[in-house]
Amino acid sequence: MTAESHALTQVEPVEHSPVATLAHDARGGISNPILGMLLFLASEVMFFAGLFAAYFNSRANTTPWPPAEFEGLLDPLSLILVATIILVASSFTCQFAVWAIRRDDRTGFLRNMGATLILGIAFLLLQAYDYSVLFDEGMTMSAGPFGTTYFTLTGFHGAHVFGGVIMLGVVMYRGMVGQFSGRHHDMVEATSLYWHFVDIVWIVLFSVLYLL
Amino acid sequence: MHPLRHPRNALAVGAMFVLVSAGFLLFAEPLGYGIDFAGVTMLFALGIAMALMAYVLIAGSPRE
Amino acid sequence: MATHALTPAATYSRGGLYEWLTTTDHKKIGILYLVNSFVFFFIAGLMALAVRAELSAPGLQYLTDEHLYNQLFTMHASIMIFLFIIPILAGLGNYAVPLQIGAPDMAFPRINALSFWMLPLAGVLLMAGFVTGGAAAAGWTSYPPLASDRPLASTGSGQDLWIVGVVLIGTSSILGAVNFLVTIFKMRAPGMTLFRMPIMVWTMLVTSVLVLLATPVITGALVMLFIDRNLGGNFFDPATGGNAVLYQNVFWFYSHPAVYVMVLPAMGVISEVLPVFSRKPLFGYKAFVFATAAIGALGFSVWAHHMFTTGAVFLPFFALLTFMIAVPTGVKMFNWIFTMVRGQLTFSTPLLFALGFLSMFLIGGINGAFSAAVPVDFALHDTYWVVAHLHYVLFGGSVFGVFAGVYYWFGKMTGRMLDETLGKIQFVLMFIGFNLTFFPMHMLGLAGMPRRIADYAANVGWNDWNLAATIGGFLIAASMLPFLWNVFVSLRNGRIAGDDPWEANTLEWATSSPPPPYNFDHLPEIRSERPLFDLRHGRNGH
User: Fold this and answer.
1) Domain span including residue C310
2) DSSP H helical segments within C262-348, as ranges?
């Protein structure tokens, strides 16, 4: 090892950084699967960026927005707020699950992960119901750029939630057969990072589509 | 890693793109061009994604 | 601390079909990438020959169905970009990076295999258009409204197959980028700091950043196009409130960084080859690294220079930033040239291809600088000038770089060296053919010949240059014959490579040819970016 090759400036130890609590491997970096998931999430930010770009461009080019026939349809104080609260709550339960497995509390882990899974499914069901309400009001994928951008953005977000629900399901299964411990639970960490990401995207989506 | 002195400094590369997106947003109209909201959005998001990526790569690297 | 004599190449188990189909070894996957990419290179090359044959003289001689012509140039470009150049550079990186950083494999070997196998599948999907009523025919850029229009875009499902295939390839690339980044940041051998990595690894690093952050954007654009085509979407149709230029905006946000994805690893190859065959270290290593990073960063900010003529672009912003890319690129040119100055040059085939890269990429950079000037672009956009530019950088640059890499690493991959004489014949034929094909296109563009036309009038003065270009095209095709013959005979009877046939500098030459599955029995001490040079000359590096 060449520790003396250059005069090393004192580097801030990684232990104090936000990534310090994530699982580390023997050589002192974040574990590979977790680093991989974080990088994948960076790429997912860019996927939604392209869709948001289309949204803002469409919105800037269309007056009025929302179009007159859909005025008031996207009401933040409706079922969608319930769905939002459910999704945010599921992020909390997910993090509780991670903290539990880190201290080897497998019961707490399973309970919270189960809650997360149920809340995630509830979100999807509420989203589907909300879609049917919108369809009844005539707002569909073909309803001008307003409809297309709404359903594309929320649809792909829902698809990501669906993927997350599958991941949570696998984590539940593996947890129930005892594959996770305080020292080995990389997949739990990676899944929770993905789930938090999905939640953050929803908060941005909700703010842009319903509040702006 | 040590040239950066701290993983937090890796965020600078993302901040750079956020600044570019701000320039893209603010200087278009004064110079007689329309604002390209799609471009602003993509550049801004790129700043966020780039900052996240750079940070986790540097902070997550093994100590040498 | 020398490596032990490992199993000689002749007795190393190559593995049967099952091994190749199920391997997660980065070396075998790298070779699979190479083979798959060359297959598509030849397919797309044949399409180019068909295009050139038709354009050799005015009048529709062979492709009387212009719709078929549209499919051919669309698929030529799509296959070259998505199934040849991007994957083959990823494949060379896949082979070289773990070896060059002293790692036993990539970080995620199974995802590595998945990334590869998505490619032949996507290729089949893309090509399936030809037999399901018509392949995609709206250009590789696939702009709406043409691309959203059935049946203009393609008479069958070709356009949709194209969308699905390209999205699959994009996914494969993104997974590969994650793999490369985790490998490079987490799995370097002790002593190999970031600034002691070979330049090939640095270029793969920056390329992976570009792939990771730009590719998802084209996924978005294509998804939106698919929705417009099939689900009644209104993103891009002005008649229902959409905006056709929006597609171009989102598309080029990916496709411009993509061109750096298509060239940076080739620059990495050149930066490996030139020092070895000049017997001198790369001039200005750190400047080169920062220049590469600058190209990556600037590359994200210039996309709308592909859309200057739409009237929807903040022109001075993009023109200025585009000109600025010439600066780091120029730095690299000087780094390469000064590596060779006062060096002891060996004119091996890899060096010849590297010299070809330098000269041809220089021309491509210069004609690109012309296009960066907005008023010039207003005249030359969508003419053959652009076709000249893109082929000078992508063929004269990247493809020459690919062949440099193939001739350089073939011995390491297979244990046998490619024949130098056949290599030089290929180089000469290819160099002459390439310039004969594409240099006249500058004149054609300046004379106003548009792109993507199947035929042209006989009396506008384009005939001779077109004929010259066609002859050049067939000469390029001819140059592939010595190459294929070379591969065929060398695999059987080539000179045994040994560990380090070129007396090179980087870690891949510190193990057998081909390397064992776990790559290294022993690693030399790493104190500089040339660990083997240090080992040989018993001196500490920098």
Assistant:
1) 21-537
2) 264-278, 285-299, 315-324, 326-340
Q: Domain for residue B33, yes or no? A: yes
Q: Please tell me the distance in Å from A115's CA to the nearest CA on chain C.
A: 30
Instruction: Establish if A95 touches chain C: CB-CB under 8 angstroms.
Output: no
Domain count, chain C: 1
B50/A42 touch (CB, cutoff 8 Å), yes or no? yes
Q: Testing the interface with A: which of B37, B42, B58 to mutate, by most A Cβ within 10 A?
A: B37
**Helix or strand (DSSP H, E) at C222:** helix C199-230
Residue C5 in any domain: the answer is: no
Instruction: Among C195, C215, C234, pick the best mutation site for testing chain A contact (most A Cβ within 10 A).
Output: C234
Asked if residue C2 belongs to a domain, the reply is no
Q: What is the pLDDT of residues C117-145, one digit of tens each?
A: 999 999 999 999 999 988 999 999 999 99
Q: What is the pTM of this model?
A: 0.94
- pLDDT for the residue numbered C64: 79
Distance CA C481, CA C477 (A): 7
Residue B12 lies in a domain: yes
What's the structural domain count of chain B?
1
- Kindly state whether residue C15 falls inside one of the protein's structural domains: no
Question: B54, B10 in Cβ contact below 8 A?
Answer: yes
How near does any CA of chain B get to the CA of C380, in Å? 22
* pLDDT less than 50: residues of chain C: 1, 9-11, 541-542
Nearest CA in chain B to C217: B42
Parent domain of B7: 2-59
Q: Touching B: which chains, 3+ CB pairs < 8 A?
A: A, C
Which CATH number covers residue C237?
Answer: 1.20.210.10
Q: Chain C residues contacting A, CB < 8 Å?
A: 107-108, 174, 177-179, 181-182, 185-186, 190-191, 193, 212-221, 223-224, 227-228, 231-235, 240-243, 246, 249-250, 253, 525-527
Q: How far apart are CA C170 and CA C209, in angstroms?
A: 14
* CB-closest option in A19, A25, A39 to B53: A39
**Residue A20 Cα, gap to closest chain C Cα (Å):** 16
Taking the Cβ of residue A57 and every Cβ of chain B, the question of whether any pair is shorter than 8 Å is answered with yes
Domains of chain A: 47-211 (1.20.120.80)
Does residue A11 surpass a pLDDT of 60? no
End-to-end CA distance of chain C: 20
Which amino acid appears at position C3 of this protein? T
Long-range contacts of C14-19 (CB under 8 A, 24+ apart): none
Residue C468 maps to a domain: yes
Cα separation, C398 vs C266, whole angstroms: 5
- By CB neighbour count within 10 A (0-12 exposed, 13-18 middle, 19+ buried), where does C464 fall? exposed
- Look at residue B64 and tell me if it is in a domain: no
Please, what's the b/e burial string for A191-211 (b: 16 or more CB within 10 A of its CB; e: otherwise)?
Answer: bbbbbbbbbebbeebbeebee
